[in-house]
Each structure stands twice: as structure tokens, then as C-alpha cells.
């Protein structure tokens, strides 16, 4: 017969422990919620600015790798052309050697002294024998040329193989750097999405006001005529960049529909007939370095460990492509980070 004993009630001590544990869990959840509040608009802007800066650094590294990729591709193409031409030359040399061998074969295989003894016209034979000697010398020369060409081809093929391997490494590096700046931009966008539409519009309005102030300052400089351009080409580059005001910043952009910072400076100087390199990490070597007090309109100006470049526009203003989400515009130097130096092209 089954037992009908009453179930054992939980002890007072156990109830107390469970209640305390539940309370602690609720308190911990509450503390976590309080410890991770929605960031303020100013905090979001500071974080977004930092992410944009990091994205720009990654973009310039990407541009540097892209430039290296283009150089390697050109080197590989040139080497492959050399190998193709060298193979054609080798085939021609082999054809010449075959012609020499055929001529020797047609002369017969009898010992020369026996041929002389049997010849009815010794003088004619001696002439032919001299020609055969010349053919032998030509054959030896052809063999030497073939061996030299084969060695050169082997070296060129090995060099092309090494360059192709380097090119593949750079392509992988490009992919990694592209993912890096795209990740930074995506993270910045996620932060911006935490703001309301009104807050985002307020931020944009402040950017527009800053741009208008910079434009007025540049206009004052032109009106007063206090600063002459660094050179005719510097003036031409600055004027060309001014025609691109309003074009969007796009990582890797080099014009004419969009730009990143070094893409704009390279494009502007190209319009002035001057070829400069593609990235901030190389453009600083394209001219003479100067201090802030020596700057003139048209000079390149570099900021924040070579991660950003623009064109000095005078009166403390810079014409540049700032960062993702903005357009080519004038801006005061104090807003662009730590100034490093100027470069006069």
C-alpha cells in the first residue's frame, strides 16, 4: 500500500537564501542597465569622430597598398612581356642553329682529308671546306647565344614568379585594410543611429555653420589680398580643388565624382600639370617641408601623424575632403587635429 505522507516543506533558511538570490539578480540587472545608459549626443559625436579618424588612417594604408599593387602589376606585366619576347628570340636562334646543322648534313659525313683526296677539283673543295668551317663557327656562336638567352629567360621567369607572389600578398593585404575601414565606418553609423533624427540634423547644421564660417574667412583673405599663392601651380591646384567643393568624401576616391583627402590633393595638382603620389604617407616627400608660419595658399598641409592632408587656402583655412559623410569644403586648421608641417610642391 502506497504511503500518503505529506511532502516536506522547504525550510525557512532555504526560502531566505532563494529570496536573497533572486533579489541580488534583480539588483544586478538593474545595476547593469544603469551602468550602460544611452550615450549623449556629445559622446556619440566624440566616438564617431574618433572612428572616422581611424577609418581615414586605414583608408590611407589601403591607398598605399593599392599603389603598391598597381606598381607590382606593371612590373609583372613588363617582365612577362620580356619573357615572351625572349622566347621569340630563343626560337629564332634555335631556327638558325637548325639551318647550320642542315647545311653540315648536306655536306656529307666523309672525312675531310678523304674528300680532298677524291676531289677532282681540289681548289673547289678547299673553298667548300672553308665555308663549312665558317658554318661550324657560326653554329658555336649560335649555341652560346642560345645558352645566354636561356639563362636570361630563367632569371626573368623566376623574377616574374616572385613578383606574382608579392602581388598576391598585397591583394590579400588590400582586402584586410578595406574590411578594416569599412568596419570602422559601419560602427560609426551604428552610433549615429542611436541618435534621434532631430539630434542628427542638429549635428549636420553645426557642420554647415562651421563650413560657412571657413568660407567667409577664405573670402576675407581673398578680398584683403594679404597672402599670395606659393606658386603659379600652387594657385592653379587650389583653384582646381575649389571647383570640387560639395563633392562627397569616399574612402579611396580620387575624383572627379568623389575624393578622400589625398585623392583630392593629387587630383588638384594634376589639373595644374604636376604629378604627385597617391597617399599622405608619400605626398609629404613630394616637396619641401615648411613650418606653419611659412605657409602660403596652395601648399599641402599635414595633420595627425600623416593621416590627413589638405590644401592651405590662406587665413588659417584648409580646403580638403574631411571624412566620410562630409563633402569637400573649407575648414579652419584648428579643427583638423594636430598640425605637423606643410609641404611646398
**Beta fraction of the residues?**
5-15%
Q: How confident overall, as mean pLDDT?
A: 78
- What is the terminal separation in angstroms? 105 Å
Global shape: elongated
Number of strands: 6
Count of alpha and pi helical runs: 8
Strand order of the largest sheet: 1-6-2-3-4-5
Low-pLDDT residue spans: 13-35, 113-119
Rg is: 38 Å
Order of helices and strands: HHHHHHHHEEEEEE
Helix content range of the residues, please? 55-70%
Q: How does the helix and strand content classify structurally?
A: alpha+beta
Query: How many strands, what sense, and barrel or not for the largest sheet?
Result: 6 strands, antiparallel
3D structure, described in words:
The protein has 345 residues and is α+β, with helices and mostly antiparallel strands. It has 8 helices and 6 strands. A 6-stranded antiparallel sheet has the order 1-6-2-3-4-5. Strand 3 (308-314) and strand 4 form a beta hairpin. Helix 2 packs antiparallel against helix 4 and helix 3 (112-118) runs antiparallel to helix 4 (122-192). The model is unreliable at 13-35 and 113-119 (pLDDT under 50).
Amino acid at each position: 500500500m502506497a504511503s500518503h505522507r505529506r511532502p516536506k516543506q522547504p525550510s525557512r533558511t532555504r526560502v531566505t537564501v532563494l529570496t536573497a538570490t533572486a533579489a541580488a539578480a534583480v539588483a544586478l540587472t538593474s545595476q547593469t542597465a544603469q551602468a550602460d545608459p544611452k550615450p549623449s549626443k556629445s559622446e556619440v559625436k566624440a566616438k564617431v569622430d574618433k572612428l572616422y579618424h581611424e577609418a581615414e588612417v586605414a583608408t590611407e594604408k589601403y591607398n598605399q597598398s593599392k599603389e603598391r599593387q598597381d606598381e607590382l602589376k606593371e612590373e609583372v606585366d613588363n617582365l612577362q612581356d620580356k619573357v615572351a619576347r625572349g622566347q621569340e628570340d630563343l626560337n629564332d636562334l634555335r631556327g638558325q642553329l637548325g639551318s647550320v646543322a642542315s647545311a653540315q648534313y648536306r655536306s656529307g659525313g666523309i672525312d675531310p682529308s678523304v674528300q680532298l683526296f677524291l676531289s677532282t677539283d681540289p681548289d673547289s673543295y678547299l673553298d667548300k671546306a672553308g665555308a663549312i668551317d665558317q658554318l661550324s663557327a657560326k653554329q658555336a656562336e649560335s649555341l652560346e647565344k642560345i645558352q645566354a638567352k636561356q639563362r636570361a629567360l630563367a632569371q626573368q621567369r623566376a623574377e616574374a614568379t616572385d613578383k606574382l607572389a608579392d602581388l598576391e600578398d598585397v591583394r590579400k593585404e588590400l582586402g584586410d585594410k578595406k574590411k578594416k575601414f569599412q568596419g570602422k565606418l559601419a560602427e560609426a553609423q551604428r552610433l549615429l543611429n542611436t541618435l534621434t533624427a532631430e539630434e542628427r540634423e542638429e549635428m549636420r547644421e553645426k557642420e554647415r555653420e562651421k563650413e560657412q564660417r571657413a568660407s567667409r574667412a577664405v573670402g576675407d583673405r581673398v578680398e584683403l589680398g594679404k597672402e599670395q599663392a606659393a606658386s603659379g601651380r600652387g594657385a592653379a591646384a587650389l583653384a582646381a580643388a575649389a571647383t570640387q567643393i560639395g563633392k562627397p568624401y569616399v574612402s579611396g576616391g580620387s575624383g572627379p565624382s568623389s575624393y578622400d583627402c589625398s585623392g583630392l590633393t593629387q587630383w588638384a595638382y594634376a589639373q595644374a600639370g604636376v604629378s604627385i603620389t597617391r597617399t599622405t604617407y608619400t605626398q609629404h616627400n613630394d616637396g619641401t617641408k615648411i613650418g606653419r608660419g611659412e605657409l602660403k595658399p596652395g601648399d599641402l598641409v599635414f595633420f595627425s601623424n600623416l593621416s590627413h592632408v589638405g590644401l592651405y587656402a590662406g587665413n588659417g583655412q584648409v580646403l580638403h575632403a574631411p571624412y566620410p559623410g562630409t563633402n569637400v569644403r573649407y575648414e579652419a586648421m584648428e579643427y583638423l587635429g594636430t598640425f605637423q608641417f606643410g609641404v611646398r610642391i
